[in-house]
Amino acid sequence: MMRRYSLSIVCGLAWLWSCHAVSAPNMGDVVSDAAFELATDCPPGFALNTGQCELRSLYQLYASLQDGGVGGLKTGLPTYRDGFTPQEIDLGRYLFFDPLLSADNTISCATCHQPDKGFADGLGRSVGMGGAELPRSAPSLWNVAFQDSFFWDARAKTLEEQMQGPLYDAHEMGGDPVSLLSKLNASEPYRQLFAQTWPQSYEAGEDIQLDHIYRALAAFQASLVSLNSRYDQYAHGFADALNEQEKEGMNIFRSFVARCAECHTPPLFTNRQLAVIGTPEPDGMPFDPGAGPVLGEDSLRGAFKIPSLRNIDQTAPYMHSGRFETLRDAAEFYNLGRGHAVPEGEELKIHWHVWEPNLTDYEIDRLVDFMKTLTDESFKPKTPQRLPSGLPLAHDKTLATARATTTGDN
Amino acid sequence: MNKLTVVLGAVVLLGAGFFVGKAGKDEPTVIKVGSAPAGEFKSEASGEVAAKSTLGERPLPANVVIVKDGESIQDAVRTAEPGTTIKVMPGTYKETIYIDKDDIALSGVIDKGAYPILEGEGLRNDAILYSGNNVTVENFWITHYKGNGIMGQAGNNFVIRNNVVVDTGIYGIFPQLGKNGLVSHNIISGIEDAAIYVGMSDNIDVVYNEVYGSVAGIEIENSRHALVEANYVYDNTGGILAFITPGLPIKTCSDVIFRNNFIVNNNHENFAIPGSLVSNIPQGVGMIIMACDDVVVEGNIISGNDTMGIAITDFSLASNAANDPDSEPNPNRPVILNNIMLNNGNNPVAEVRAILATMMETTGPDIIDTVGMDDGCILNPERFRTIGLGKYSDCDYATTSTVATYTMAEPVPPRSMEDLDQGELAYHGICAGCHAYNSRMIGPPTQILQALYMDNPEGIAEYIANPVKKRPDYPEMPPQNYLDEETRLAVAKYMLSVKK
After folding, report:
1. Given a cut of 60, is residue B465 above it in pLDDT?
2. Least confident of A236-245, B301-310, B471-480, B486-495
3. Which residues of chain B does A86 touch, with a Cβ-Cβ cutoff of 8 Å?
4. Under CATH, what is the fold of the domain A230-372?
5. CA distance linking residue B73 with residue B82, whole number of Å
6. Backbone phi, then psi, for A244, in 5-degree steps?
7. Rounded to whole angstroms, how far apart are CA atoms A179 and B81?
8. Of A240, A257, A275, Cβ closest to residue B147
9. How many other CB atoms are there within 10 angstroms of residue A51's CB atom?
10. Is there a contact between B321 and A352 if contact means CB atoms under 8 Å apart?
11. How would you label B438-452 residue by residue, b for 16+ Cβ within 10 Å and e otherwise?
């Protein structure tokens, strides 16, 4: 038993310990007034090659049909983003955690994408400016490098396009490009960090460029790779990585009765498509039409992006508006009948794989067992100890406040 | 009632209004002698496919293990090394078998007609799942499973042959996301979806199978380079299909040959699961080409299919599925060479009959193109009753006989590794989570380990398989024994070579 679980536990514990007790060189987050130094090494999961960080994974040993990145156990990855410099990634890390990026300096990207909550926020629907509850849940950022569309309704095609949604949405971070630039330009540490990252662009003390902000944030997000779960050990050929119940769960997962793997397809546990599955909204919330209106395609009414199941155990509650508290509830949804939760008057084109598999309670429990083997946070990045803006880290505190506010409202 | 049929009917009506006039029933039949087109069929895959199929001649692995009645087949798979043939004696085996390793043959022993029977008892999900490469499954009798009989997920170079699959769930044989495979000499019946379903795959031969009593006989979906030849396909709701299903991650279907099949009396009542795509198939259709490109139909006997012989159509057939803006819906460049078509459309389903009535017809067509493609071709069109083929031209070749197989000349190799070092992938992809070059992370810096092990990568390889606690100020290293020996040594060597 110890062997089976030790990797993630040891790394998890040791990480905390090393994070707080040891200051790593090159990472620039020693608590002091010293100038910030950006990393010159790539984060784990990447090799430095001619100045750029290139992804490295055992999955690169495998091919995939039509390079689609979907298949079975030994199947290659789909196309992905890499090739950022160590400095771009590390600068992105500071920006990601810095509440300076919101209008009132209270919300950072990490507020809704917390490293300790699977880069989601543990909420059914995220909380934005002034404690307001947003219509959808925050998706996990693990493995976004492999995604080719963003937001639950797939309306953005790149990370750079995606991030401008929350940054500038009045209900989320509430900013705008002009004030974002002026705040960053007013920060001497940030001016220095952008100059460290792109020396040629800033040699004469030029102002920070918007595209560089986006690129750094994209670089950091694309470094969040999780491909070393116990499932992956099994996939690479180590049969004992999973116990008997987990293997049973894996076989139910990929069986054509449960059909989970038809959409949550290895190796990423998503096939990156949209699907209409007809999950219910939380009580009192109106039906969310998802991708239909965004793409101007009526038949996609109620369609949402199929999320990856990697690190899914870390990101309860589940579905686009967090209706299901547990993985078991989420799995059971598919067992309760095709379209059973579709509101009256809605005519949805429910995906053909959503049917009535009549799984037993035992089988649903095994599916949950299997999904929990997809956890791997061994490359979780360090949270900075201090921020270039001088602001305190906001993500934990904001969450506490928001919770108090919403509870008060109820 | 059936949305598909209604939509199809409406489109037929449109098509008919548009094309029937041009079809020119009153033109005299043209007598042609010695005018067969001289062009040669050229497949886009011709460079890599075999001149003749050899996949079926692949010898079974030499290392043989025998499983007897009362024993577990999965136990044998569990302990089998790659390169093992598991011979299964006649008897009844109540289990789900999964093969997650390469080079395994699961081979039944048939003794005077007695098969090894895989019995699902209506309780188990799938009979056989495989994900490994170079897998063979042969000589089994599979029955009463809820899911699939034989299901492949991404295994390449597979052979599935000589199996009997009866009354087993959704798909009888379903290789998915694989390249280079052979499905031959199987007998399959009583399947709620497709008896043989090739999904999102490349370079597949489906030959010499008997499929009947199912909703769909043989379905080629979102696949390229598929040869469907010499199959006996009867008493299904629809006989042979080439589909693009919208919303799948592999979005194309092309280069499919339907050749020399018997597609006869496919008039079974549709008993598909509500909501499934095949629930849309009208009872009594010999062949459907939906959105799939470059399908060649040659030398088939298509007879006694009560609604119509061949339907060529777009996503209007899949009216219960969400559209996919990234899937191209048209059945581009259909090719209908010489086929024998007889007694089709004699008893069309009610919806089609109603529409035919408006055209003063009572009999369904041999061939209908509901889109009215202008890039299709047909040989001897005057022999058939057609709708919507007004823009088809003469084909410039008469046979696909230059293609003996779509399986490959050489098995799909593991990924080319010329610029990839397994050790480098494992070091950066795994070890780097705990070891940095010159700074302390969770484990000691690589630099320190280099000083310790110097010219001894074997020492590292051995240690990481079964680490013991050495340093009081570091957590104990978790074992890396999930990496095989070769990878462990490769990563050790790489670790000693890292300079930064």
Report:
1. yes
2. B471-480
3. none
4. Cytochrome Bc1 Complex; Chain D, domain 2 (1.10.760)
5. 15
6. -60, -40
7. 63
8. A257
9. 10
10. yes
11. ebbbbbbebbebbee
**Encoded tokens for B447:** 């630099």
Nearest to B298 by CA among B380, B393, B362: B380
Q: What is the pLDDT of residues A114-162, one digit of tens each?
A: 999 999 999 999 999 989 899 999 999 999 999 999 999 999 999 999 9
Claim to verify: residue B114 and residue B209 sit in the same structural domain: yes
Amino acid at B111: D
Q: Are B287 and B263 in contact (CB under 8 A)?
A: yes
pLDDT tens, residue by residue, B396-438:
999 999 999 999 999 998 776 566 788 999 999 999 999 999 8
pLDDT tens for residues B272-331? 988 888 999 999 999 999 999 999 999 999 999 999 999 999 998 888 888 898 899 999
A74 contacts B322? CB cut-off 8 A: no
Q: How far apart are alpha carbons B26 and A354 in whole angstroms?
A: 51
Q: Are B495 and B477 in contact (CB under 8 A)?
A: no
Per-residue pLDDT tens over the stretch B31-73: 667 677 889 998 888 788 999 999 999 999 999 999 999 999 9
Query: Homologous superfamily of A41-226+380-409 in CATH?
Result: Cytochrome c-like domain (1.10.760.10)
Give A276's contacts in chain B (Cβ within 8 Å).
322
Eight-state DSSP code of residue B24: -
| Residues B81, B216 within the same domain | yes
Strands A52-55 and A46-49: antiparallel
Contact A71 B475 (CB under 8 A): no
Residue B404 within a domain: no
CA-wise closest residue to B406 among B37, B50, B42 = B50
User: Predicted confidence band at A323 (pLDDT cuts at 50, 70, 90)?
Assistant: very high
B283 exposure class (CB count in 10 Å sphere: 0-12, 13-18, 19+): buried
Under 8 Å between Cβ of A159 and A151 = no
Cβ contact, residue pair A72, B153, below 8 Å: yes
Provide the greatest CA pair distance for chain B.
Answer: 97
Of B396, B350, B346, nearest to B39 by C-alpha is B396
- Phi, psi at A73, each rounded to 5°: -75, -55
Pairing of strands B179-184, B136-138: unpaired
CB contact under 8 A, A236 and B170: no
Task: Supply φ then ψ for residue A303, to 5 degrees.
Answer: -85, 140
DSSP at B241 = E
Measured between alpha carbons, how far is A197 from A219 in angstroms, rounded to an integer? 12
Q: Which two tokens stand for residue B441?
A: 């992370």
Residue A329: its pLDDT value, please? 98
Quickly tell me which residue has 């979907």 as its tokens: A70
Residue among A41, A157, A255 with most chain B CBs within 10 A, to mutate: A255
3-state secondary structure of A54: strand
Give tens-digit pLDDT for B359-383: 888 999 999 999 999 999 999 999 9
User: Tokens 């043939």 correspond to what residue?
Assistant: B85
**Every domain of chain A and the residues it spans:** 41-226+380-409, 230-372
> Which segments of B376-456 does DSSP mark as H helices, in order?
422-429, 446-453
Total tally of structural domains belonging to chain B? 2
Please report whether residue B12 resides in a domain: yes
- Residues of B in Cβ contact (< 8 Å) with A13: 475
Nearest CA in chain B to A59: B425
- In a shared domain, residues B351 and B435: no
Structural domain span for residue B267: 3-387
State which residue of chain A sits closest to B322, comparing Cα positions. Answer: A299
B390 Cβ contact partners less than 8 Å away, ≥ 6 residues apart: B18, B19, B22, B23, B372
Does pLDDT of B24 surpass 60? no
CA distance B287 to B258: 9
pLDDT at A19 over 50: no
